[in-house]
């Protein structure tokens, strides 16, 4: 992907891991309308980019992953425009959820409001010890509007989600880990930890990774088991399946080619 943006940067390494940086450090990487539009453009192209195998999202600087939405833009909203803004944010973050390549949030500093909603739309989350997470929208007379009320309940359960949302309380990285909101907390470099996780994932069959993402996100749906069975069958017809099982029986590392 060669396209350049104004508020986000991206760079893909030799292993196919793309680092996407929200690049508004003087605004604590707040998600204004331009950032959301550029995130949408980026993720619409992810699935068709054959060189891109995984995405790590981080914030520029050391103070914030993304410290919420742009409050000045929020102040202009009314009933109709507010509903449209919420639906737009939901649709953009759903693009991330629906991406069939792993997306990892590397959370440093503040991940508040829309910033935490962005992190929750990622498939996995790694937090640094300095991370502070929360959904403080009720303090502004609002509720989370980019899918936060739904995804937080899915991740940590309704009772704890309600406590976080109704109080607007900010929590530490360790608290987030204990709740299951983040996958890991690191004392070291949060980006390097996310990179290590991406590298571990990419050692496995790429078609199987895509299928696993699809199957897991249908868990709890009425047709989830059927989708799992269909994908399992489809994978049995792939060259990656033959290579993986043959390599296992021969005691060597597999060489997956994504076919």
TrEMBL record:
Pfam families tied to this protein: ECH_1
BP terms from Gene Ontology: fatty acid beta-oxidation
GO molecular function: lyase activity
Signal peptide: none
Annotated InterPro entries: ClpP/crotonase-like_dom_sf, Enoyl-CoA_hyd/isom_CS, Enoyl-CoA_hydra/iso, Enoyl-CoA_hydra_C
UniProtKB keywords: Lyase
PANTHER family reported in the protein's UniProt record: ENOYL-COA HYDRATASE, MITOCHONDRIAL, ENOYL-COA HYDRATASE-RELATED
Protein name as annotated: Enoyl-CoA hydratase
């Amino acid at each position: 992907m060669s396209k350049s943006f104004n508020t986000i940067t991206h760079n893909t390494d030799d292993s196919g891991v793309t680092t996407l940086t929200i690049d508004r450090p003087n605004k604590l990487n707040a998600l204004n309308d331009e950032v959301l539009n550029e995130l949408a453009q980026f993720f619409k192209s992810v699935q068709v980019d054959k060189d891109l195998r995984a995405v790590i999202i981080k914030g520029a600087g050391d103070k914030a992953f993304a410290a919420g939405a742009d409050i000045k833009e929020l102040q202009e909203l009314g009933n109709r425009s507010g509903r449209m803004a919420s639906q737009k944010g939901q649709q953009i973050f759903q693009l991330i959820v629906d991406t069939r390549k792993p997306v990892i949030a590397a959370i440093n500093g503040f991940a508040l409001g829309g910033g935490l909603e962005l992190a929750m739309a990622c498939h996995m989350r790694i937090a640094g010890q300095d991370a502070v997470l929360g959904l403080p929208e009720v303090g502004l007379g609002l509720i989370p509007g980019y899918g936060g009320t739904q995804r937080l309940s899915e991740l940590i359960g309704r009772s704890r989600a309600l406590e976080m949302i109704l109080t607007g309380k900010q929590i530490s990285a360790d608290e987030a880990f204990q709740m299951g909101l983040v996958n890991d907390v690191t004392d070291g470099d949060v980006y390097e930890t996310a990179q290590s996780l991406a590298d571990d994932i990419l050692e496995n069959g790429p078609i199987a990774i895509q299928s696993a993402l699809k199957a897991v996100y249908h868990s709890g749906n009425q047709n989830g088991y059927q989708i799992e069975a269909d994908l399992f069958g489809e994978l049995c017809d792939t060259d990656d399946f033959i290579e993986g099982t043959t390599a296992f029986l021969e005691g060597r590392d597999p060489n997956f080619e994504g076919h």
